[in-house]
Amino acid sequence: MTAHLTIDNLAKRYASTTALDEVSFEVEPGELKVLLGPSGSGKSTVLKAVAGLISPTRGRVLVRGKDITDIPIHRRNIGLVMQGYSLFPHMTAYENVAFPLRTPMHRCGQRDLHERVVRMFELTGLAGLESQRPAELSGGQQQRVALARALVFSPEVLLLDEPLAALDRELRERMQEEIRRIHRTLGMTIIYVTHDQSEAMKVADRIVVLNRGRVAQEGSAVQLYESPIDEFVAHFLGGANFVTGTVTSIRNGHLNVEVGDVELRVPSVDGLRPETQVTLMVRPERVQVGVPDAGSNHLPGTVVDSTYLGSALQTIVSLSDGTVWKSNVTPARSRVQAGAPTHLHWRIEDTRVLAAQQTPTNTPLEASNEP
Amino acid sequence: MPSIETQPHASRRTAAAVAFARKSRGGLLLLLPALGYLCLFFFLPLVFLLLQSALTPDNYLRVFRESVYLDVMYRTARMSLAVTGVCLVLGYPFAYFMSTASERMVNVAVGVVILPFWTSILVRSYAWLVLLQREGIVNKVLLNLKLIDHPLKLVYNLNGVICGISYIMLPYMILVLYASMRNIDLQLLVVARSLGATRLRAFYRIFVPLTASGVMAGCSLVFILSFGYFITPALLGGREQTTFSMLIDIQMNQLLDWRFGATLSAVLLLVIMLLVVAVRRIVRVERSVQWIQ
Ligand SMILES: Nc1ncnc2c1ncn2[C@@H]1O[C@H](COP(=O)(O)OP(=O)(O)O)[C@@H](O)[C@H]1O
Ligand SMILES: [Mg+2]
């Protein structure tokens, strides 16, 4: 089966910046794909290239295997909801939603038009608001009108650019479920752009992580969280502890990695040989503080701070080389005295080996470190 | 949480700063010089004028009895309407260009629009004479190109007046239109196109309706200014193009009938004020209809 939408080697250069360096990914029919990345990583640029708002410097966009890179914007049949919704302020909600059906591209009979608009109002939970103008609607309602307007002409693909960024948190969470429901009902192929990792994990079938105009990693939420490919992805998807060491030997499907004067055991990774420098990553909620169990990895350190968070106890520990690690464990036990020497320990299979980064370490702009 | 959409820029004019500036009462004092000037040289003479016209109320009847006054009023209105139309047709595309141009182009365009203000109206009106008269540049070029056999009568008629006044009024129209267009989110046009609209359709279904109030403001400004206009029609018009303000001038400067001149002035003032009120009413109704629908 061919992909519904194919982004093939897309690049976009502006005079002073490279917005997209090289982006390729595919979206399957009926899939909700999230484009996740910090601000400025090129997410909107990808959507603009797909919708035809900009022409890429290099690369192609294909719909069902057909190249649409040179088709003008109004004949692409792609639904687009921009950041800030862009509702037509001089038209009622009804007229906004009916607008596409009155263009030559999607024209239909009067009765058909009315039926389709009404169906969209029902689907998006807007019934009763037909005669309101955008200025009279709440943020959430405007969002729904924009969604209804982008869906009413049954586009090939729906593109959503940070659709919930302007809404408050409660409404945002409701809309996330709403969008998933609409997605299920219509079986629509969707690209959903966001910089919020928790939103991405909540709505996505699969996630493409963008960093500086490149795809950093693609996968399901579980894959990205459990097996991030590099420090950037590890950091962007949640809290992460890092430590670097040298592979000393490979035995019984395990790597032995020497960190300072401690030996850690790590699930084996293809293509790694002794003497290689590697970065290891462990999620804070997998790290325990205290006396290590036999057969687990452990590192000595000093407690810097310990905070009771209710649902978890967060302990910050400084390793002997100054690296700071976090442990977020549930159930929360009593706090540990700051300054006390202690041990961090975790299961061998919770240790991840990251790819060496070619580019200097990225500090993600909007990565949230809290779980 | 302040939404990013409604507050794109952090304002330097925070409420606290404005309140602080207000508290120093000096603000009101700053109004006094201009206010005093206006009172002394505008409101006072105006009141004096109106009083004078009131001395002979019969004069008001005369304005309506003798057909020439209403006739000229009507013709002045027609001429102003034509000027307004010309300015809109010329100004709208120009303002649209400005609203989509880069900042540097906008600065150049604003310069071009404002440049004529640096020269006196009298000079500019005479310049039109040089262009349009029988032996003028336009006629010479057309004759040399053999497009015409006889020189056209381009001036001392309605054509001359409309050319002259439109040229004076055009900057006002452009600046008012530009001010309203600048606030239109051009992304709306892009979105309209992604929904299937052609470039042209996006323009007249989205952009044009959003400029309606700007068009209304520009047209009423130009119409009202043209209505009371004096110098240019006097220089470039013929007998047929006598405007209402020229009638006033004749009463005051030639017939020395100050009282009747005052009456005519009062009538002109009244008509213009009624027009302003009417325009406001229409715009407001239009807006409230928009809300209701
Ligand atoms: N029209 C433009 N001209 C110049 N640079 C641009 C333009 N549009 C976007 N960029 C740059 O391209 C990069 C990616 O932008 P964008 O795709 O909007 O990022 P995101 O949506 O992920 O925040 C940014 O560095 C931005 O400054
Ligand atoms: Mg963006």
Q: Specify the biggest β-sheet of chain A.
A: 6 strands, mixed
**What is the alpha-carbon Rg of chain A in Å?**
24 Å
Query: If helices are DSSP runs of H or I spanning 4 or more residues, what is the number of helices of chain B?
Result: 14
| CATH topology title of chain B | MetI-like fold
Give me the secondary-structure category of chain A: alpha+beta
Largest sheet of chain B: none
- What fraction of residues of chain B sit in β-strands? under 5%
The number of helical runs of chain A is 8
Give the oligomeric state of the chains in this entry, treating copies of one chain as homo and distinct chains as hetero.
Answer: heterodimer
Q: Give me the secondary-structure category of chain B.
A: mainly alpha
Strand content of chain A: 25-35%
Tell me the domain tally of chain B.
1
Mean pLDDT of chain A: 90
- The rough form of chain A would be described as elongated
Question: What is the CATH-assigned architecture of chain B?
Answer: Orthogonal Bundle
The ligands bound in this entry are: adenosine-5'-diphosphate, magnesium ion
Beta-strand segment tally of chain B: 0
What level of helicity do the residues of chain A show? 10-25%
Question: Helix amount of chain B, in percent?
Answer: over 70%
